[in-house]
């Protein structure tokens, strides 16, 4: 509803609604106001042209055409809506019937609908008009039935997609009957798009109706609608063009009103973020730092990084002042729950945050170059050759229509000026390096012929086409099975050893990170709350959140007779962060100090940074006991 | 009390030529009142098996039995097997309040001592009771799914499954869409409910640690076939089948090591393709002790070990499974066929 209201503030939305209301008001009021005038025969003023008294002139009986056009609104709109109603009802019945009927009967209906859809609507209307006989009733039925197949198809597609949902399956398992499923689950969930379609369809029905009447097989005298007026007027197009023009314009305007309204609603339902007003801000690095790249420099230096997004209730800041460095050959893991900002941090480092997101940082340098202020072209080459990305979903990382080998080769052609052949040879070489079996053959295959794990390997291979100094892997194994996950993690590790590239591994799985990285950054609500060597994580973690994370994940040695640890509550929304420590609500060590002052990330020893007022000091075996409570029940 | 048994169950999709046998001859018993964990990778057919048990997937061979009765022959309106889905975001109708969703699953007719909920007030009371059972405030019944967190939704889904008064609950990857911080509380709830209500449960997950935590027995599925079954602790502590061993080794834990592993010709083998299952032992192209590593073991490429597997409580479908050792007590019939002979208490140790 809010979306609809937002759309009504756009000029087009307002126009559409006002126009439609006007047409509908006219349909109701016109016969009352101009009814008498429209039927008043005036033999003194037969077949006149437009004049002050008769704006559109008069007809053969001297009746005022302007008044008749206005009065005809009711019949034209009414009949069109009636036809539409028939079309929608029949269509929805036909479209949803296959979901309820036995398989066989359902198939027959689907086949019939498929055939009917293949005929042009107007042809069907003419056919039905002949079947039902000439006249108003016949025309309404004809147009209704002619539009039904189209609706049936829409309803069919929509209900099939809803029927595939788990909640429908759940209802069926629970013993809910097919008809009940249709009424309670399917219809409510397809109603919105159907209404949109019906609105647009009403405009089309209006036109078809006018067409039938114009041809003389619609409304019959003495009744009249726009189509008939148009037909009558056309006979005198040379003597009085206005007589045809008036009803013609009326048809167009009314049709437009319905169509625009439908589109408006469709747009409101389709696009979820009409936030244009907020988009125009751009980023400004606080202090651009001159570059001085040499090999002792960290590969990635991030200081005070923040990422902001506009939302309906103001700016959200899902990454708030993140600081870390990543040296050559180092593997750093970032862990946290969803919404902790871990992925956004990585994306910002790869310059992949798109507008409306805004990235700001005191310092954000890759290979000694400032990412926020260096010239665009220079950065493209730098990132293109020295940065590799591996994403979570291997199905979307490649273009499905092009061969894997070519997609890899493209990188070398673009950034290293290799020829087509040379680039392809290198692609095959790299595929072999990431242990894709039969690389020469595989290079000629399309992405869908690769399994998930293979695709991740190819993705890593793509990163190796240049000379990567940093590999950012964002949940690279989350979609994979454990055995394949191990293969991919090993490969990443091997590549890191071979090329001395740094690895930034984002994962929700603290165990994966502990085992594959040198250092672990724990993120919570957009901040790094703890940074320590991976080897010390289980023994020396001191932040209550890190401890809790370690405690909630069962491993193969977990005590089966004790309940698992839980972290009660939820992380705060990025638009409503508390004044003090963001974890305070869920932290059992929280004091008033925590709730009022935000702890900063500060060194607490060699290689160990922490943001907490009351670090946990006792070593190991804590955390599970007192934090057993039921999540979310309060 | 009720036992769910899969008897030589086969599920085949599609036509003769381009079909896919997702589940191929599965024999598995879920003994009354116990939890059997089902693990396997994607494409192993574990979700298909679950869907077959509740009638969402076609059983093209064999039978699924509930206390000896084919589930397809149960009286109409009786739904003793309930399924909880993986994704709590798509398993609740976004337009229905959670109370309505739960109420919908309440039995309308009385069955064998089970109460029916016909009038509004009785339903209302029952919904409130169920909400409290899963640790939610009874006042939340008017909420729409969109107002709840993932963990809360999964609780609602559990409540809905329980509303139907099931004898068997199948949980299909119910924690894999949840954040780790929430996963623990859902698992605790599942265990509490199972023990309190004495539910028979088939718990499906790809996460071994999670399965081990809730299950009494574990069954390992590979390309539509069960390759190993046994008491949970014993099976995971001492896996017999090479595939199970791989799974256990690959499970990330804070203590083991994922990166240190011997190089082997099958270390980077691709997972099996259910459209073209290999002949003989389906695991042989990936098996670290199989024919690709030890040449003498060519039998693996031709003879399906499932057919010659020994009959013991802990059994593995492998020609060269490690000796089961002192726990190896052969039982007269294939246990997977007749159910687990030992009571669940002795496997909990
Ligand atoms: S600062 Fe306070 S509330 Fe925050 S984690 Fe530390 S003890 Fe808990
Ligand atoms: S039967 Fe052979 S190939 Fe199969 S798991 Fe056993 S050893 Fe490996």
TrEMBL record, chain A:
Subcellular location: Cell membrane; Membrane
One cellular-component annotation, GO: plasma membrane
Recorded GO MF terms: ATP binding; ATP hydrolysis activity
Keywords recorded for this protein, A-Z: ATP-binding, Cell membrane, Membrane, Nucleotide-binding, Transmembrane, Transmembrane helix, Transport
Highest taxon of source: Bacteria
PROSITE patterns, per the entry: ABC_TM1 (PS50928), ABC_TRANSPORTER_1 (PS00211), ABC_TRANSPORTER_2 (PS50893)
Residue spans crossing the bilayer: 75-101, 108-132, 194-221, 241-269
SUPFAM superfamilies, alphabetized: MetI-like, P-loop containing nucleoside triphosphate hydrolases
InterPro entries hit by this protein: AAA+_ATPase (IPR003593), ABC_Ni/Peptide_Import (IPR050388), ABC_transporter-like_ATP-bd (IPR003439), ABC_transporter-like_CS (IPR017871), MetI-like (IPR000515), MetI-like_sf (IPR035906), Oligopep_ABC_C (IPR013563), P-loop_NTPase (IPR027417)
The ABC transporter domain, residue ranges: 300-550
GO BP annotations, alphabetical order: peptide transport; transmembrane transport
Membrane topology category: Multi-pass membrane protein; Peripheral membrane protein
Family (UniProt): Belongs to the binding-protein-dependent transport system permease family. Belongs to the ABC transporter superfamily.
The protein's name in its UniProt record: Peptide ABC transporter ATP-binding protein
From TrEMBL, chain B:
One annotated GO biological process: transmembrane transport
A GO MF term: ATP hydrolysis activity
Keywords: ATP-binding, Nucleotide-binding, Transport
Domain of life per record: Bacteria
SUPFAM superfamilies linked: P-loop containing nucleoside triphosphate hydrolases (SSF52540)
Any Pfam family hit: ABC_tran
Region (Disordered): 257-276
Start and end residues of each ABC transporter domain: 4-248
InterPro entries per record: AAA+_ATPase (IPR003593), ABC_transp_ATP-bind (IPR050319), ABC_transporter-like_ATP-bd (IPR003439), ABC_transporter-like_CS (IPR017871), Oligopep_ABC_C (IPR013563), P-loop_NTPase (IPR027417)
Keyword ATP-binding: yes
Family: Belongs to the ABC transporter superfamily.
Listed PANTHER family: D,D-DIPEPTIDE TRANSPORT ATP-BINDING PROTEIN DDPF-RELATED (PTHR43776:SF7), TRANSPORT ATP-BINDING PROTEIN (PTHR43776)
Xref: NCBIfam families: oligo_HPY
Protein name: Dipeptide/oligopeptide/nickel ABC transporter ATP-binding protein
Species, as recorded: Actinocatenispora comari
């Amino acid at each position: 509803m809010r979306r609809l209201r937002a759309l009504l503030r756009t000029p087009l939305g307002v126009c559409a609604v006002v126009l439609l209301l006007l047409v509908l008001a006219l349909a109701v009021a016109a016969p009352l106001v101009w009814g008498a005038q429209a039927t008043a025969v005036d033999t003194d003023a037969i077949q006149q042209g437009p004049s002050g008294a008769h704006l559109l002139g008069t007809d053969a009986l001297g009746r005022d055409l302007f008044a008749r056009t206005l009065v005809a609104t009711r019949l034209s709109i009414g009949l069109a809506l009636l036809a539409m109603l028939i079309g929608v009802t029949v269509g929805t019945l036909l479209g949803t019937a296959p979901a309820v009927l036995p398989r066989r009967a359902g198939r027959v209906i689907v086949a019939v609908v498929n055939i009917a859809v293949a005929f042009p609507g107007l042809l069907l209307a003419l056919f039905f008009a002949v079947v039902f006989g000439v006249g108003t009733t016949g025309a309404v039925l004809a147009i209704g039935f002619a539009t039904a197949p189209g609706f049936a198809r829409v309803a069919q597609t929509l209900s099939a997609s809803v029927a595939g949902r788990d909640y429908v399956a759940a209802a069926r398992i629970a013993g809910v009957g097919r008809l009940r499923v249709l009424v309670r689950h399917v219809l409510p969930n397809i109603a919105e798009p159907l209404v949109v379609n019906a609105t647009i369809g009403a405009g089309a029905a209006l036109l078809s109706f006018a067409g039938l009447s114009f041809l003389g097989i619609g409304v019959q005298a003495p009744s009249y609608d726009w189509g008939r007026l148009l037909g009558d007027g056309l006979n005198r197009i040379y003597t009085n063009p206005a007589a045809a023009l008036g009803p013609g314009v009326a048809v167009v305007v009314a049709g437009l009103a319905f169509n625009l309204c439908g589109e408006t609603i469709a747009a409101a339902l389709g696009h979820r973020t009409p936030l244009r007003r907020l988009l125009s801000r751009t980023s400004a690095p606080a202090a651009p730092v001159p570059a001085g790249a040499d090999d002792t420099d960290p590969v990635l230096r991030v200081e005070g990084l923040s990422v902001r997004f506009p939302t309906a209730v103001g700016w959200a800041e899902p990454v708030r002042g993140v600081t870390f460095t990543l040296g050559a050959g180092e593997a750093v893991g970032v862990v946290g729950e969803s919404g902790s900002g871990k992925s956004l941090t990585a994306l910002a480092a790869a310059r992949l945050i798109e507008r409306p997101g805004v990235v700001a940082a005191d310092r954000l340098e890759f290979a000694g170059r400032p990412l926020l202020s260096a010239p665009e072209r220079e950065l493209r080459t730098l990132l293109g050759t020295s940065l590799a990305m591996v994403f979570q979903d291997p199905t979307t990382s490649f273009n499905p229509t092009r061969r894997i080998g070519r997609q890899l080769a493209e990188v070398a052609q673009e950034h290293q000026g290799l020829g087509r052949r040379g680039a392809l040879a290198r692609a095959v070489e790299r595929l072999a390096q990431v242990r894709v079996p039969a690389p020469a053959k595989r290079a000629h295959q399309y992405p869908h012929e690769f399994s998930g794990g293979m695709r991740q390997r190819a993705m890593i291979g793509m990163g190796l086409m240049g000379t990567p100094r940093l590999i950012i892997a964002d949940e690279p194994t989350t979609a994979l099975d454990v055995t394949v996950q191990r293969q991919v993690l090993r490969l990443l590790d091997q590549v890191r050893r071979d090329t001395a590239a740094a690895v930034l591994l984002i994962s929700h799985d603290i165990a994966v990170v502990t085992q594959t990285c040198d250092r672990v950054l724990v993120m919570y609500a957009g901040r790094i709350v703890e940074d320590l060597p991976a080897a010390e994580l289980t023994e020396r973690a001191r932040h209550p959140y890190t401890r809790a994370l370690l405690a909630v994940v069962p491993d193969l040695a977990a005590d089966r007779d004790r309940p698992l640890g839980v972290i009660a509550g939820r992380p705060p929304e990025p638009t409503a962060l508390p004044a003090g420590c963001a974890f305070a609500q869920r932290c059992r060590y929280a004091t008033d100090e925590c709730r009022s002052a935000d702890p900063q990330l500060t060194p607490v020893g060699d290689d160990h940074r922490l943001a907490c007022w009351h670090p946990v000091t006792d070593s190991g075996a804590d955390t599970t006991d007192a934090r057993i409570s039921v999540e979310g029940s309060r | 009390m009720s036992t769910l048994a899969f008897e030589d169950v086969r599920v085949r999709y599609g036509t003769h030529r381009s079909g896919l046998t997702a589940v191929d001859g599965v024999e598995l018993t879920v003994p009354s009142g116990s939890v059997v964990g089902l693990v396997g990778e994607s494409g192993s057919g574990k979700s298909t098996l679950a869907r077959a048990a509740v009638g969402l997937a076609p059983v093209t061979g064999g039978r699924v039995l509930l206390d000896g009765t084919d589930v397809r022959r149960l009286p109409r309106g009786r739904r003793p097997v309930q399924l909880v889905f993986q994704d709590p975001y798509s398993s609740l109708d976004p337009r229905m309040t959670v109370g309505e969703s739960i109420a919908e699953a309440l039995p309308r007719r009385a069955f064998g001592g089970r109460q029916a909920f016909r009038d509004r007030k009785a339903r209302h009371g029952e919904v409130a009771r169920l909400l409290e059972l899963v640790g939610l405030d009874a006042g939340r019944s008017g909420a729409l799914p969109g107002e709840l967190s993932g963990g809360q939704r999964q609780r609602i889904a559990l409540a809905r499954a329980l509303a139907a008064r099931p004898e068997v609950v199948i949980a299909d990857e119910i924690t894999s869409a949840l954040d780790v911080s929430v996963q623990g509380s859902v698992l605790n709830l599942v265990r509490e409910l199972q023990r309190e209500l004495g539910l028979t449960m088939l718990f499906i997950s790809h996460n071994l640690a999670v399965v081990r935590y809730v299950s009494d027995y574990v069954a390992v599925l590979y390309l539509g076939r069960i390759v190993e079954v046994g008491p949970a602790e014993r099976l995971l502590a001492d896996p017999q089948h090479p595939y199970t061993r791989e799974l256990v080794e690959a499970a990330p834990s804070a203590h083991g090591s994922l990166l240190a592993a011997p190089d082997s010709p099958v270390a980077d083998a691709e997972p099996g393709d259910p459209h073209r299952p290999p002949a003989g032992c389906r695991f042989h192209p990936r098996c670290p002790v199989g024919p690709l590593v030890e040449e003498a073991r060519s039998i693996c490429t031709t003879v399906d070990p499932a057919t010659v597997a020994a009959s013991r409580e802990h059994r593995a479908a492998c020609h060269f499974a490690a000796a089961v050792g002192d726990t190896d007590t052969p039982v007269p019939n294939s246990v997977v066929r007749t159910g687990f002979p030992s009571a669940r208490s002795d496997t909990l140790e």
